[in-house]
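2024-03-11 09:14:02 INFO receiving multi-entity request
2024-03-11 09:14:02 INFO entity count = two
2024-03-11 09:14:03 INFO echoing inputs for audit
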Amino acid sequence: MQFQRLIRTLDAFWERHGCSIVQPYDMPMGAGTFHPATFFGALGPSPARTAYVQPSRRPTDGRYGENPLRMQRYYQYQVILKPTPDNVQQLYLDSLRACGLKLEDHDIRFVQDDWESPTLGAWGLGWEVWMDSLEVTQFTYFQQVGGLDLQHISCEITYGLERITMFAQDTPDVYAMAYGPGKTYGDLHLGPEREASAYNFDHADVVLHQQLFDRYEMDAMRLLQVGMLLPAYEQMLLCSHTFNMLDARGAISQSDRPRFVLRIRTLAKQCAEQYLERQQPPANDND
Amino acid sequence: MTTTSAADLLFEIGTEELPAAYLPGLIEQLEREAIVLFDSQHLPHGAIQAFGTPRRLTVVVKNLADVQQTPGTEIRGPSKQAAFDASGKPTPALHGFLRSQGGKLEQTTLVSSSKGEYVYFLKPPATTPTKTVLPALLPQLIGKLRSPKTMRWDASGVRFARPVRWLVALYGSVPIRCAYGRLNSGTKTTIGRPQQLHTVSVKSVDAYFRTLKGGRVVLDHRARRQAIEQTVTKTAKTFRGAIAPEMISHGLLDEVTYLVEEPAPLTGDFDPAYLVLPREVLLASMAKHQRVFAIEAGGKLLPRCIAILEGKPKQPALVRKIVQRILNARLADSLLFWQNDAKVPLDRRDLSGVTFHEKLGSMTDKSKRITQLSAALADAWSLKAEERKRLERACLLAKADLVTTLVREFPTLQGTMGKHYALSAGEPAEVAHAIEEHYLPLLGRMPKTLLGSALSVLDKYDTLAGYFSVGITPSGDQDPFGLRRAAQGIVEVGWAVHRPLPLQALFTAWQKLSKTGQGKAGLAQQIQTYLLERLYTFAWPTPVPSNDCIDAVVSLYQSRPCDDLIDVMERIRTLQQLSGRPAILKAAKVIERTRNILKGAADGSGDVDPDLLKEDPERQLWDVYRGNRDRVVKLIEERSYDRATQEFADLFYEPLHLFFDKVMVNDPDAALKRNRLALMRAIHTLYTDRIADLSKLTVLQQREEHS
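2024-03-11 09:21:47 INFO inference complete, emitting structure
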């Protein structure tokens, strides 16, 4: 199955299971969890069923297009289910079957992996799903987002789309995999991957990014004060990506790291709190 | 009373995949808590056993009696004044108490005590059918199980290591209905590989075991571990190889045991070109990324692996192809890291960005400190010029591998990679081995080389002193920086090499090098005391010293610097070896009697003035002292503590006895009194200043209690 068809298949599968299929967020982010549909969707009591593709940018994972498994930009397919269906593991396996994988032929394992995003103040318990010893999916029951305990538990399923397609096509090299009619993944992505790796590691302006981080952070704080929630959240996303860029340029020392992470987490936490305040009806003084 | 019969109970907690690391603890708790529960509930039972796989925890109670027989009890209620009003009628308080206990007024009595009269409910003995008690008890069992991390998964709010998805509860062939969270128990279990799960009804405890066996589930974790080890060994033999021993000693076999319930082996190959990688890297990559077993022949790894799959796949060849592909890709990554890392020699690695601790500086600072500190230990160990130079070199390079890519990928290879990179950069072998060994003791492994031992002690001493200097000390079971282990390591390594551990000299040298240690009064004493306390938990060779032997020696250092921790340990050993012998008892008696007379005395300072010795027994005692002191001191300096103790006892026991019989120490003449006390002090300190305070020995206390 071609890459673009696989995405369509997952869309159709999860649409049948009641998901809104939303579009990628149009800003750089390290993982699908940063998409507001997940970050805010996991907070509060309202049910949520959402699925979407999110390009994920991890500047330090770049390998100049030389590694068949690691890239600085790849695609995650993210499903968020709240409340969590009791048969969620089986639903997930069914979605792989829908993609044409013959699961009986393979070795499938749910291996403990407790996911945590220090910058988002989010963590959960779950697994990395192994297919023949390769991690193809991250499966998490969120317990905390924005540093806040969740009363209503969401399940987050994050598919590694490239890896699953490589299985479906039995291709060892991501760049050789068929993307769509007449095009490989490499045709569309290899050039940009090489250039972006070089930019991330060698050319990005460190001083500019240091200044940007400070400015984005200040702006996020200003926006939070005037109750501009989503705009503030977007500045937090920019902070996070800028931090990742600085990291790739080797401009973050081990001792600086916790401080940067804390600065981003503080913003994320305030966004989460402000979001929850809006969800709750004003307290009735007569009660 | 009902005649009772018994049946087996089965309780299965079906879950989504439990973490392998949690399972041994969960199984052990399930068994223990079940015993506690059924015992406390007056439910007679036979053997109780718990089992576990990633998807189930099962407990079986053999011969569980079919009635619960609760003995009668008396339950205290309100006081008489509160229970009855002025006219003697029961108050609402009494009614409420009876209601809560399910009792009637006729079942109460008044009992008076020192606190006044109280109403007691005489709860009668009861017999309840076990099957009606179980529904409330079984869910309690789940609630008792603890894990390092727990989660919620639905609105019921129950917490467990992973979601609980089904429960089977059978008493003989009677289904027990119980509820946990949103779940109700039933008689259906789930078996099969994760992608082919199916439910099966089980009608009895026996049927449950048959069903699991038929589904190839190896429920008993011990049997599973054995089966995996056998199958890997057998498969390895077909390649004329054996399982690499590290796979067992480093825990992969245990982990895999808890990753599968239907173990099925699969062999694979990797590109022999990767065998140029250090063995440790190959093993770490195989164990960490894919949990596959490595095979060796004649001590050398073969380019093969054995994976343990969850059940047999329909297309083993397909799985093999992918497992091999992933393994080759991982090893390619490792090879690239290895080659790139080797391009920058260890002495050019910059550790200034790696924080040791916020207040204690970077790893560069730490490396510099231990390099300079090494002189103090090198002096004590009388290292030769060449050894000193190599030790300094090893100190400087010890932490350099922390910034290599392979150590970032496999943190457990710290030290090991340092060794390999040191060797490939042409450093002397002693330096390389010291770098590797300085993280030991770990998992029962000790440094084998002298320089490795030295570096291990220096690194740990700097860690301990550094954290103590900024006020971070272990408390209770809270020890996030591993300081207890560091202190234990110092003692273990020191004892193993049996060279002096000059605590005082180390501290003086360390304090000069550290910014945080300067001007901290009492810090030296605090570190020394903490290290000496480790002697109580140290794994002594037999005969293991009793605590009073340790007390006797350690108590000398409450306010006195310790020049050599190993000498302290030697003296403790000697006391233990002497215990029960007349010599130690006589010596202890001398110490005790002199101590008692000195205890109340304000005076007694200064030297003994021979001209003031009036009585024969005191002159005799002084002659013994004067004539033998130097010999005893010499024995002690030669560390012949057993002979010194023997001499001390033989010399002083009898003359001292005579002295106390005939001579009045507290003479009205102050000068005579002072002189006699000075004699007592001279004899007392001859031993206690140098060996031990024998008055701490319990052998004395026992005698006192009897007398």
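2024-03-11 09:21:48 INFO post-check: Helices of chain A lie at 3-16, 36-39, 88-98, 161-169, 185-203, 206-225, 229-248, 257-279.
2024-03-11 09:21:48 INFO post-check: Residues 205-279 of chain A form a domain with the Methane Monooxygenase Hydroxylase; Chain G, domain 1 fold (CATH 1.20.58.180).
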